[in-house]
Amino acid sequence: MAKILFNHVYKRYGKFKEVAVNDFNLQVEDGEFLVFVGPSGCGKSTTLRMLAGLEDISDGEIYIGDALVNDYSPKERDISMVFQNYALYPNLTVYENIAFGLRLRKLPKHEIDLSVKRAARVLEIDNFLDRKPRELSGGQRQRVALGRAIVRKPQAFLYDEPLSNLDARLRVQMRAEIISLHRKMEVTSIYVTHDQVEAMTMGDRVVVMNKGVIQQVDTPELVYNRPNNIFVANFIGNPPMNFIPGKLLEDGEDVDFHTNRFALRLTDKHAAQLRKHQLVGKTVILGIRAEHMSFESYELEQHSRSLITGVLEFGEFVGSDRYYHLEIGMDSLLIARAHTRYQFNNGMKVSVALDMEKALFYHRDTEILLTD
Ligand SMILES: Nc1ncnc2c1ncn2[C@@H]1O[C@H](COP(=O)(O)OP(=O)(O)O)[C@@H](O)[C@H]1O
Ligand SMILES: [Mg+2]
Questions:
Q1: Element (H, E) at 278
Q2: Is the pLDDT of residue 325 over 80?
Q3: Which of 30-39, 146-155, 282-291, 318-327 has the lowest mean pLDDT?
Q4: In this protein, which residues make up the domain named ABC transporter (predicted)?
């Protein structure tokens, strides 16, 4: 077990030295479960593979514990990795599949036996040890692949989209199993996924990446509630955050956010923060999540200065709630969550009251968060 440190790490591929990972700086705490999330091609696998020693580092340093491992072989790094395409040996039993790496390391037989059985017990596959992979379900096979990784206690576990090939139900179950396994073993872990739900549900902290650059490193709560920039706000959460461009204008002591259709009164705190940025009189982007709006009539009355009226384009029923898509001018749609007791028809004019304390304001050009 160990902490892991990336210090100004770069990866440039090929003749044209295209930057796949750009100035990556991160400390992973000892025993932490950290998730890398981002769209396909953003450099997640490359970063993980550089840590594992499967890919050269173009620039920078990687430490595992106190050791600078840039020149260590994968084996010397003492890391276990689980991939999406877990290849089990078809002719070997479950037991032999799990034992394989330990045999390569020439461990004594009784030690191998103890380790395999312990791993199998943790993963609840101890009844299948004599079976061949083809006699197992997809989930059981994935557990054998995990067993091969956890059979020993390495410095760190690395997971590269290990659940992508499983169906939705099994994925949810395996997610929980990997986390409960982590609680038992407490080995520093990095888990890569392009699925923001997986990232939010599993990570102690989440690292959001885009185009080889870290966008934000935070707890799932902070990544969701305080996205550092518009990319993160768009990527995390379903539906994504709503963004509305508008101009900040003084109204006596107050500041209002104006579009050509409506005006919203800012909280004193937001007004003060945006004044400090000298953005009053300028255009900014307001971000608001679908659940931070209300259709309740008493809310509409109480918050007469934070109303948006739009034309209902359509509603999406998701069981517990309904998401209404409102046309609010400037070719913009606003997605608002409503309790299913609300029934609006397409084409209706409806109003929502925004919870302005929950609103976030982003810079129009840099797309960076301006308020908190
Ligand atoms: N072996 C390689 N040679 C050249 N380019 C590569 C290689 N592997 C990955 N890349 C490029 O590096 C970028 C990051 O890839 P990758 O780390 O696999 O992304 P992710 O795992 O986030 O989907 C992509 O643009 C990809 O095309
Ligand atoms: Mg990948």
A1: none
A2: yes
A3: 146-155
A4: 4-236
**Could you tell me the pLDDT band of residue 16, with boundaries at 50, 70 and 90?**
confident
Ligand 1 contacts CB of residue 14 (under 6 A): yes
For the domain bounded by 4-235, which CATH number is listed?
3.40.50.300
Domain ranges of the chain: 4-235, 242-363
Q: Which atom of ligand 1 is nearest to the CA of 14?
A: 4
- Whose atoms come closest to the Cα of 164: which ligand? 2
Segment 84-102 shows an average pLDDT of: 90
Note the pLDDT of residue 332.
Answer: 84
210 lines ligand 1 (CB under 6 A): no
For residue 197, count other CB atoms closer than 10 A to its CB: 15
Nearest CA to ligand 1 atom 2: 13
- Which residue has its alpha carbon closest to ligand 1 atom 7? 13
User: What six digits make up the tokens of 87?
Assistant: 């290849």
At 185-235, the pLDDT tens digits run: 899 999 999 999 999 999 999 999 999 999 999 999 999 999 999 999 999
Query: Rounded to an integer, what distance in angstroms lies between the CA atom of residue 211 and that of residue 41?
Result: 7
Checking if the pLDDT of 372 tops 90, the result is: no
Query: 230-236: long-range contacts at Cβ-Cβ below 8 A with a sequence spacing of 24 or more?
Result: 230/285, 230/287, 230/362, 230/367, 231/367, 232/208, 233/287, 233/360, 233/362, 235/37, 235/38, 235/39, 235/196, 235/208, 235/210, 236/37, 236/196, 236/199, 236/200, 236/206, 236/208
Q: pLDDT value at position 1? A: 65
Pairing relation of β-strands 263-265 and 254-258? antiparallel
Cα 178 to ligand 2 centroid, rounded to whole Å: 19
How far is residue 43's CA from residue 212's CA, in Å, rounded to a whole number? 5
Please give the CATH topology (third level) of the domain spanning 242-363: OB fold (Dihydrolipoamide Acetyltransferase, E2P) (2.40.50)
